Amino acid sequence: MKITAKSIIVALCLLTASAASAIDLGGLGNFINNTIANNNFSIDDLTGTWQYTSPAVSFRSENALQNIGGAAAATAVESQLDPYYKRLGFNRSSLEVDADHNFTLKLGLITLKGVVEKNSDDMLEFNFNAFGRVPLGKLTANATKSGDTLNLTFDATKFVNILSRIAGSLNNASLTALTTLLNSYDGIYIGFKMRSR
């Protein structure tokens, strides 16, 4: 589906009153970005350094109207994640991808390395290693891009499980509180909005 200014206006008009009330003026930019970002980019478009700008949330759906509602819900949840991310040091996150698709993902004091590729469903697959040595397994990410902004979100349960395996470097109380918050949502993906630099 081609996204145009007209389709964005129509999408905004189709929001229910409850979804619209979740968006304040401060979150309007995030809402629009969540609506128009798409996964039509190649893995080579990730080459370079990406710096954290804010939390990112997504809900996967093939239905256009559900995606619009999901964008509104994502914007509301992102503001709830912000204090947890600050306590966990995620507000200092960055992603570097080289020409061979090797990546370094820094989450505060934690550094995860490995190789990233794009699968047939247009999702990214990260093969994670903690500290560059300890295998943590593969994790699929929903990635969308709009201009120089990358939304990178992981299945929340699987992402928290990986973080729990290296929780010695994290604030355990904050991670537990974050897990409790995420358990109130079904099918939520969490991660990071990043900007290329």
In short:
The chain is α+β, with helices and mostly antiparallel strands and 197 residues long. Helices cover 36% and strands 34% of the residues.
Write the layout of secondary structure elements.
Layout: H1 5-14, H2 17-21, H3 28-36, E1 48-59, H4 64-88, E2 94-97, E3 102-107, E4 110-118, E5 124-130, E6 134-146, E7 149-155, H5 156-165, H6 172-182, E8 188-196
Antiparallel strand pairs: 1-2, 1-8, 2-3, 3-4, 4-5, 5-6, 6-7, 7-8
Helix pairs in contact: 3-4, 4-6, 5-6
Structural write-up:
The protein is α+β, with helices and mostly antiparallel strands. The protein has helices at 5-14, 17-21, 28-36, 64-88, 156-165, 172-182, and strands spanning 48-59, 94-97, 102-107, 110-118, 124-130, 134-146, 149-155, 188-196. Strand 6 (134-146) and strand 7 (149-155) form a beta hairpin. Helix 3 packs across helix 4 (64-88) and helix 5 packs antiparallel against helix 6 (172-182).
Low-confidence stretches: 1-32, 62-69
CATH architecture: Beta Barrel
Q: Which class best fits the helix and strand makeup? A: alpha+beta
Structure summary, number of beta strands: 8
Helix content: 25-40%
Q: How many independent structural domains?
A: 1
Mean pLDDT, as a whole number? 76
What spatial form do the alpha-carbon principal axes imply? globular
CATH topology: Lipocalin
Estimated radius of gyration: 16 Å
> What fraction of residues sit in β-strands?
25-35%
Q: Count of helical segments?
A: 6
Strand order across the largest sheet: 1-2-3-4-5-6-7-8
Give the class-level CATH name: Mainly Beta
Taking the alpha carbons of the first and last residues, their distance comes to 29 Å
Give the H and E element order.
HHHEHEEEEEEHHE
Largest sheet: 8 strands, antiparallel, barrel
